[in-house]
Amino acid sequence: MAPAAALRCEKLVKQYGPLAAVDGLDLEVRTGECFGLLGPNGAGKTTTVEIFEGLNDPSSGLVEVLGLRWSSDAHALRQRLGISLQETHLPDRLTVEETLRLFRSFYVQGRPVEEVLALVELLDKRATWTEKLSGGQKQRLAVACALVSDPEVLFLDEPTTGLDPQSRRQLWDVVLGFKARGRTVLLTTHYMDEAERLCDRVAVVDKGKVIALGTPQELIEGLGGHEIVELATQQPLEAAELADLPGVRGARRSADGVALTVDQLHVALPAVLARVGQRGLTRLSTHRATLEDVFVQLTGRKLRE
Amino acid sequence: MTLTRLRLFFREPGAVFWTFGFPLLLTVALGAAFRNRPPEPVAVGVESAQLFETLQRDEGLRVQLFLEDADARRALRTAKVGLVVLPGPPITYLFDPTRPESRLARALADAALHPRGPPATVDLPVTAPGSRYVDFLIPGLIGMNIMSSGMWGIGYVVVEMRTRKLLKRLVATPMSRAQFLTSFVMMRALFLFLELPVLLGFGWLTFRVGVAGSLPLLLGVAVLGALAFSGLGLLVASRAQNTQTVTGLINLVMLPMFVGSGVFFSTARFPEAAQPFLRLLPLTALNDAMRAIMIDGAGPSGVLGPVALLAGIAAISFALALRFFRWR
Ligand SMILES: Nc1ncnc2c1ncn2[C@@H]1O[C@H](COP(=O)(O)OP(=O)(O)O)[C@@H](O)[C@H]1O
Ligand SMILES: [Mg+2]
Question: CATH number, domain at A230?
Answer without folding.
Answer: 3.30.70
